Amino acid sequence: MKAAVLHNYCEELQIENVDLEEPRKGEVRVKMKAAGICHSDLHVINAHLPLPVPIILGHEGAGVVDAVGEGVTSVKVGDHVVLNWVPSCGKCYYCQIGRPDMCDEAAKISAMGTMFDGTTRFSIGGKAVYQFPLTGTFSEYTVVPERAAIPIRNDVPFELAALVGCSVITGVGAVTNTAKVEPGSTVAVIGAGGVGFNVIQGAALCGAKQIIAIDVLPEKLEMTKTFGATHTINASEEDVISAVLDLTGGHGVDYAFEVIGRPETMAEAYNITRKTGTAVIVGIAAPNESVTVNAFSLPSQSKTLTGSWLGQGNPPVDYPKLLDLYAEGKLKLEPLVSKIYTLDQINEGFEALKAGKNIRGVIRFD
């Protein structure tokens, strides 16, 4: 089968024939139908998230169950599934306190690029090929743990269903689960990308009265209005802090979301939040980077500064709910897909991502 393989950091992915083992006990083989091209994959390519190579990237994907290993009960051959890149163990401390997004076991194995038993199912010429993170969606087929394959309704196009696996649950969940945005509140979103658009429509779903989209690309800022933005700020033309204060009567917003992954915009999100407000960091920066905020403001302004991973969600519950919202016309997925690519065009898709051209580029396998 064909897969896109990263052999060395900062190089293009190579389309190669890769061997794939049969699913073992508790594992599922999925015939991939669609996979989103996400900044998190780009972070691995750029060595911001160093993982072992060679590796098959891709974590936002949907497909059809093709085979199941011994003991699998939650899915069967023919089921439509969205892949879960944080397949929580259900047993660790964080799973037990209701935070499966923080699962210790899933985090550890994801950093290894292997399955839960420490081995890989992909290989080239007998040499192990790793997968990111327990999914490896940039391949025609993949083998994943059973709890990484979430069954979904079968009436949603795969290229749309794939999006709930990362960008939708991350963006909407940051609003509904992490910040718990209240009706009538004011919201600012720094970064109009795949996740940022979903933060915006999550805020609209919650009934925010003012949603301020902040970016540097006029065409993306204009499109944020489709998802519910009431105001836009072009950060290349205006001072963001001054502009936000002008729009909020000098107070700042109740909730600010940073969805880029840069220390300076993370600090900016904190600074545009009003006293006692909440700033949520969704974007992923390199592990060696730090954010600087005014120390005196921490107690004196009593703001909440927090992060959100996977939208603080629970995929087995949230993926189906999000797709139900789409089916009911309450969640917009079609406008998120900017361009469809073949697997052979994947590097073109990453170039468009780096240039900020797409909201979401999607690989379609059929």
From TrEMBL:
InterPro entries the UniProt entry points to: ADH-like_C, ADH-like_N, ADH_Zn_CS, ER, GroES-like_sf, NAD(P)-bd_dom_sf
Cofactor requirement: Zn(2+)
GO CC terms: cytosol
One Pfam family hit: ADH_zinc_N
GO biological process: formaldehyde catabolic process
Annotated keywords: Metal-binding, NAD, Oxidoreductase, Zinc
Chain ranges of the Enoyl reductase (ER) domain: 11-363
One MF annotation (Gene Ontology) recorded for this entry: S-(hydroxymethyl)glutathione dehydrogenase [NAD(P)+] activity
Keyword Glycosyltransferase: no
Key word Amino-acid biosynthesis present: no
UniProt family annotation: Belongs to the zinc-containing alcohol dehydrogenase family.
PANTHER family: ALCOHOL DEHYDROGENASE (PTHR43880), ALCOHOL DEHYDROGENASE CLASS-3 (PTHR43880:SF12)
Name of the protein in its database record: Zn-dependent alcohol dehydrogenase
Phylogenetic lineage: Bacteria, Bacillati, Bacillota, Bacilli, Bacillales
